């Protein structure tokens, strides 16, 4: 049995308007409902809290040993390709006993794109 403590971190850009975070908070709740035993956190690149480095101490204090970061971005732009890996490299230095993995941007997934296409077509009804 695998007893490693894992966390899933939904990583979004951030914005000045606090309402911008609401869909990401709903996503976090939906993921938690589907996997109640999993630690699911939300972090931001900028403009909102917690930023990823601010979130880590609480996860580490809770005994988390593996962190998967899911960029909740539509595409693999500069923030996902450049900024996030640099940030995670810094975190790996600060937390060498923690395993980090960066998933692909959520908008690059075929199922996500199909759900978005279905939604877009549904607006015509």
Automatic annotation (TrEMBL):
It is an enzyme of class 4 (lyase). Pfam families: CbiX. This is Cobalamin (Vitamin B12) biosynthesis CbiX protein. Gene3D superfamilies: 3.40.50.1400. GO terms for molecular function: metal ion binding; sirohydrochlorin cobaltochelatase activity. The keyword Lyase applies. Its EC number is 4.99.1.3. InterPro entries: CbiX-like, Sirohydro_Cobaltochel/CbiX. Keywords: Lyase, Metal-binding. PANTHER family: FERROCHELATASE CHE1, SIROHYDROCHLORIN FERROCHELATASE, CHLOROPLASTIC.
